[in-house]
Design a protein that fits this description.
Elements: H1 2-10, E1 14-18, H2 27-36, E2 43-47, E3 53-54, E4 57-58, E5 72-75, H3 82-92, E6 96-99, H4 109-125, E7 129-130, E8 136-139, E9 144-147
Parallel strand pairs: 1-2, 1-5, 5-6, 6-7
Antiparallel strand pairs: 3-4, 8-9
Helix pairs in contact: 3-4
Amino acid sequence: MMKKILDKVFNPKSVAIIGAKDDPGSVGFGLVKNLLEGESKRDIYFVNPSRPKVLNRDTYKKVTDIKGKIDLVVIAVPVDFVIQVINDCVAKKVGGVVIITAGFGESGEKGERIEKDVLGLLRNAKIPLIGPNCLGILNTRIDLNASFAPISPKKGNIAFLS
């Protein structure tokens, strides 16, 4: 049962990047660049309410505006916007969430409250979470790099979890 739940996270057929950008050096750009490398194997959607296009591709204002199912959502927006994004993910019934954003429990009382709210919302909706404040996820076996790492590792027989 657990494999089936986590399959949406580690073997997604569709990925939405919330906070997609085309500013070189930004986390949103790193995610976009890395995910586009494996685009032929999955559908990639860019979400950014303040940019109509990223890398000449149309963006969506919210994940709920995307037609069809979304297996994985990768969130790279300021911490103050994460609760609304999570509410949208719950409404959309996404398969899993990766929160790249920092500023949660590690940053003090306000961040700790937001983190608890996020965990409660996702737990109630039975949506798995990776993060917050993480690099993202990579699965070289299926050419998935949902991280902002500047270099993608080569395929091999090693798993790393941190």
